[in-house]
Input
Amino acid sequence: WHVEILLYNVEHVVHCPPFLTYLDELPAFKESQAGRPFRLSVVEKFKDMGTIVMGKVISGECRKNDSLTIMPNKTLVQVADILIDDEESDVAEAGDNVKLKLRNIEEEDVSPGMVLCSPDNV
Output
């Protein structure tokens, strides 16, 4: 399939690249968020031999045993395990949908909408 879009301007016609070519040339999400402070938006939480939060990594990366802060209550937590697609991983990067098993916090102290972030990015 080849679709060419013509945008008419008062002065001239602008030829745009095919849509799929345009998408292929966009910078990768992971590349644009690499090196930034870690942030994860909590979507769900539950208890399974510890407190587990689910969410999407918005930026940065975290590793097992990293210390993070859960906002807005500023509780310092530690990452015990990282699960991506229910498989253990050593690192979670921007764009990953993850489950993080946390130490130093109870399941009832976490709510969807909270944000896990690097302690130096509070």
User: Anything to note?
Assistant: Helices lie at 19-24, 29-33. The two ends are 48 Å apart (CA to CA). Residues 19-24 form the longest helix (6 residues). The first strand starts at residue 6 and ends at 8.
